[in-house]
Predict the structure.
Amino acid sequence: MDYLPPVACVELSADRFYICLIDVNGAADLPRQLGGWTVERDDRELLQRLLSGRLVVKTTDDPMPEVDQAEVAGYFTVDDTVSKVEAEIAELKNRFTAVLESPERQGLGALTEPRWPDLASLTTRTPNPQSSREGQGRAAFTLGVTVKDLATGWGKLESIRLTAAYPLPRDPGLPKSHPRQFRYYLNDDSSPDARPLPVGDR
């Protein structure tokens, strides 16, 4: 699979950066927090080490003049990313419904609808970028938990997409010991690889 760089959740105060790094790659149980740092705003060397090559999501819209914008991998917002994941969930639900209603499924038994990830609680935990002034890194940590849970939800969705299958009717010309053939009906491109979290650009 393609891998995303770690996500840096950044909270700014008058004299400090609070940074929480999150690894958003891997299966549903792998996204994890990599650590948290409190950095003085004039410590440009440490800021560069922590933010260079990272995806950055901020708890406020405050500018970061201490950081070379060209060195970060990109900026995004949680709401845009949630919207992209929700759109993918809707697409997979539509594929599931289409399979249920298709003539080829008639007489082949029922399909159980997958348990789709629930993203409803994510945006309620996300600091409002216009008003968040929590201080002491609390907003950065809260945002980090939200990003981690969003990546976990995406990992679960990708697991469903790659593994949801039903057995095809046996070919009467094959011996009974022949392995069953399956149709992976949610995986539109038949790719065996999980896709990275669809980060919404800012």
